[in-house]
Fold this sequence. Notes:
By secondary structure, the protein is mainly beta. It is built from one helix and 13 strands. The strands form two sheets. It has a ten-stranded antiparallel beta barrel with strand order 1-2-3-4-6-7-8-9-10-13.
Amino acid sequence: MRSLISLVVLAIGSTAASAADMPVKAAPMAPVYHSPFFGYISGAVLRNTSEDTFVTTGIVPGNSGNGYSGKAYIGYRFANSFDIALGFGGTKLRDRSQTTGLVEHSQNSRLWTFDAELGYRLPFGGGHWVRPFAGIRYANWRVEEGFITAGGGGGSPGSATIENKGWGPRIGLDGKLRVPSLPVALVGGVSASWISGTLNESGAFGGGFPPPVQSISRRMTNFEANIGIAYEPIKDFAVTLGYQWDSWKDVTLLNWTGPAGGPGSGTANRSTHGPFLRLSYNY
């Protein structure tokens, strides 16, 4: 019996020693989670470099002042790298008055945009990627013009509101280039859209002059670009400081058909640029 017990103890000891000599297999690492959602909110301070409008003789040339803009953007990325995204933006150019002789001309502008798009993210390793996208954009520009006689000299005050709105295709490209070993990246994007819709003009003039009332078909063209430096203090969250350019062609009217009023004519553009601040998630 004693020999049997000794044999069993020896076998157990040998098995334990063999197990101790075997390499320990590491537990599998948990997969890194990446949310399928992404997006950002941003704001910009803008300088207006648009051309003067309503430049017919007898009407003081006008232009909107500087302003600001903002945008909210949210998307969902599928496992195959395709994504869908929605964006809503707004721009406000403040009221600005210019006086020549006895006539004072004031103007302000505002813009609303709504975007729906389909994108595809192409990774290049090291956190670098580009994302081409295509979709549709709704745009609504509103320009308000006002005319008064300066210095209380009487005269015929007037006003005109030009609203240009429509839908159209939009294409673009976003991208990110990470700095190795640092939570910093160079980011940027470009886009273009072609908006077809209707320009509506309404208003009134004193002195019995014909009012500036009309509705015409109009196509707008928009080009946008931005570049910035993104800092990621914690995973997937970034703060970006950059600069943006925004150009719109054929937004509003250039002049009146005559000094006495009536509907406007011609085409005028809107161009702005300025620094922006963006807070983003998984973008």
